[in-house]
User: What shape does this take?
Amino acid sequence: MFMKPMLMTEREKPFDDERYLFEPIIDGHRLQLSFVANKTKLYTRHFYDVTRQYPELHNVPLKEPADIVLDGEVAYVNPDTGAIEFDTLLERYKMKKDARIRDGKALYPVIYFVFDILHYNGADVRQQPLLERKKLLNDILEDNAYYKKMLFVEGEGTVLFDLVKRSELEGIACKRKDSLYFEGRSDSWLKVVNAEYADLRMSPVRKGVKAAERTVTQPV
Assistant: This one.
């Protein structure tokens, strides 16, 4: 089961607003997980099946049995430095042979940062407000080594943005608490990019990765 993703509209500056919640943007690629009838399927935002590439995500840590569709970002976090390494994730993504995939899982395990739930036990929950979907997600999904529910703050976007800049992360997502989940780009979901991070991504080394990203991974 695949549902077309909701996308963010870019905004220049961070802001504070009690109507919004704010999340860090992770430097990975968008990943939708479908777990239905005890079968896991993983898709990029462009409906490319990457189930084989990430075997560590096949066992979904649910608190009780359920059929679900989740939305989030998959990334590789260096366990020694804590840095999010997009280049390493790209290598994992491009692995096709079973032996390489097994080695990749052992050496460079990914983490799925889950920020939304779209479907639950036969019910489409996209038309529930975001905060209600967040509560449902928290009620049914455990965190473990491979799954992390995305942390967020309410109302204080500038504080989070300052932390994101100090941590050299990509930026922040700004989402209305009452937002419903619609296909395509929306003004209810905004993003503010860390300009210093964006400059790094367009360095000569990153340009080659960016070209591959467009043609291979096509992440958010």
Remarks:
- The chain has six helices and eleven strands.
- The radius of gyration is 17 Å.
- The CA atoms of residues 152 and 218 lie 25 Å apart.
- The chain has one domain: 9-217.
